[in-house]
Amino acid sequence: MIRLNGVTKIYHSGDQILKALDNVSLSVPSGSFLAVLGPSGCGKSTLLNILAGYEEPDEGEYLFAGQRAQEVQSDLRRQTAMIFQEHQLLEYLNVRDNLLLPSLYSHERISREMLDGVCRQLGIEQLVSRYPNQLSGGEKQRCGIARAVLYDKRLILADEPTGSLDRENADVIMDIFERLHGQGRTIIMVTHDQRIARRCERIISMEDGHVVS
Questions:
Q1: CA distance 163 to 169
Q2: 19-23, 31-35, 147-151, 179-183: lowest mean pLDDT where?
Q3: Contact, 207 vs 192, CB < 8 A?
Q4: Which of 45, 64, 161, 207 would be 69's cystine partner, CB 3.0–4.6 Å?
Q5: What is the end-to-end Cα distance of the chain in Å, rounded?
Q6: Which of 110, 52, 108 is closest to 81 using CA atoms?
Q7: Is 10 exposed, middle or buried (CB count within 10 Å of its CB: 0-12, 13-18, 19+)?
Q8: 178: number of Cβ within 10 Å
Q9: Which band of pLDDT confidence, cut at 50, 70 and 90, is reported for residue 150?
Q10: DSSP code at position 106
Q11: Cα 192 to Cα 55: distance, rounded to the nearest angstrom
Q12: Which residues contact 1 (CB under 8 A, 6 or more apart)?
């Protein structure tokens, strides 16, 4: 599904040059559950941004479903969901409206039955009338995951989805990811937590912009 060949991403700050990714090559078959493990600042989030199509590599090649990602941006965006550590829920909308908001831009029709089914699956059916400031961290994260599930994305990219959660809520989130993986979704999850990473089927480690193992 995904292949990176010698991908490098460079940022400039004044006279300084930072290689956030340095000659990264990676293959992720469809249906994989991959953890990207490493300390803060090692390039994990930059990797996710490139995989999501938010940024383009300065060097190297990104292939999505066998085609250059730059040439299939619409397909990439349509098939990809990004789950952020900070949830990205709009504070002035309740949970139901937050979940339905992407349909206004994608023109996808989300039925009441679909919405109710996903909310039951993730255990948030009692939360749909609440606003983000009325939710716990774990509840917000489940709402963020519900958005990815509701729109049936093939590729789920998760940036430190358990980073701000206690152990119990982190395990709940990982249980959900394992169910989604069992349904055939491809999941790439960035984390710095080795315990969480060990629940994935494959782990790659990063340091200073490199894949080291």
A1: 10
A2: 147-151
A3: no
A4: 64
A5: 20
A6: 52
A7: middle
A8: 15
A9: confident
A10: H
A11: 22
A12: 28, 29, 30, 32, 64, 65, 154, 155, 186
- How deeply is 4 buried, as exposed, middle or buried, from its count of CB atoms within 10 A (0-12, 13-18, 19+)? buried
**Residue 135: per-residue pLDDT:** 93
Percent of the chain topping pLDDT 70: 100
Which two structure tokens, joined as six digits, stand for 156?
């789920």
Q: Which comes out higher in pLDDT, residue 178 or 40?
A: 178
Residue type, 128: V
* Nearest-10 crossing angle of helices 112-121, 95-106: 130
Residue whose C-alpha is closest to residue 25's, from 64, 62, 68 = 62
Contact 159, 83 (CB under 8 A): yes
Tokens 């206004």: give the residue: 104
pTM of the entire predicted model: 0.88
